[in-house]
Write a structure and sequence with these properties.
Layout: E1 6-9, E2 16-21, E3 24-29, E4 32-36, E5 40-45, E6 54-59
Antiparallel strand pairs: 1-2, 2-3, 3-4, 5-6
Length: about 70
């Protein structure tokens, strides 16, 4: 069962940068589309001209059946 995507917002200005769900992180901006599905950290620079701050998002490790990390 898919869960609803959580909006990832810039920690400084609040603009939406991406969406995150159990499949990973999805970034859509004009003709750009990127999907990151692996565990780890993703850094995203805010596209708002007055902000341009760097945001770091943690992508959790996928859980295998039985609760063990994949």
């Amino acid at each position: 069962m898919r869960t609803q995507a959580q909006k990832v917002r810039c920690k400084y200005c609040g603009i939406q940068l991406a969406e995150q769900d159990e499949t990973g992180l999805m970034i859509r901006r004009n003709d750009l589309e990127a999907h990151y599905a692996g565990p780890g950290l993703v850094s995203i620079r805010c596209y708002r001209p007055s902000c341009r701050r760097l945001n770091v998002v943690r992508i959790p490790t996928a859980k295998a059946p039985g609760g063990a990390a994949a």
